[in-house]
Here is the input.
Amino acid sequence: MNNRERYIYRYLAMSIGLIYLWFGLLKFFPAFSPAEELATTTIAALFGGLIPAPTALLLLAAWEVLIGVLLIFNLFRRPVIVLALVHMAFTFAPLILLPETSFTVAPFRFTLVGQYIVKNLVIIGALLALYQLPVATKKSW
Here is the structure.
């Protein structure tokens, strides 16, 4: 891999990491995250309300911050990408579990929430590109 490719992949990993870090940090502060209600409602639907909303939000925040920090510092790349891909899979749950929040006319007209969810396809593509890189020393990318 040449230097240009190394910088591109580092930028990609750091960009995704920054998004995760930022969105995760907001969830630690009540009413700071615009996705707070969507996240707690989705988690309640996924787990049948077994996890109290404040606890669910803290766990999600910690998960996102962990992914963000590890991507930014290029640590445990492949396991972190797997964690991020699992997270990404869960972000699509409202399309099925809460269609009224995702669509004005299912499946053709997205609400702003639906658009927020579907844009994660780009992040998934970027994570898959990072995952396929050979595992080597930190210096390699």
In short: The chain has one domain: 3-136. The helical segments are 3-27, 36-47, 53-72, 77-91, 93-97, 99-102, 112-118, 120-131.
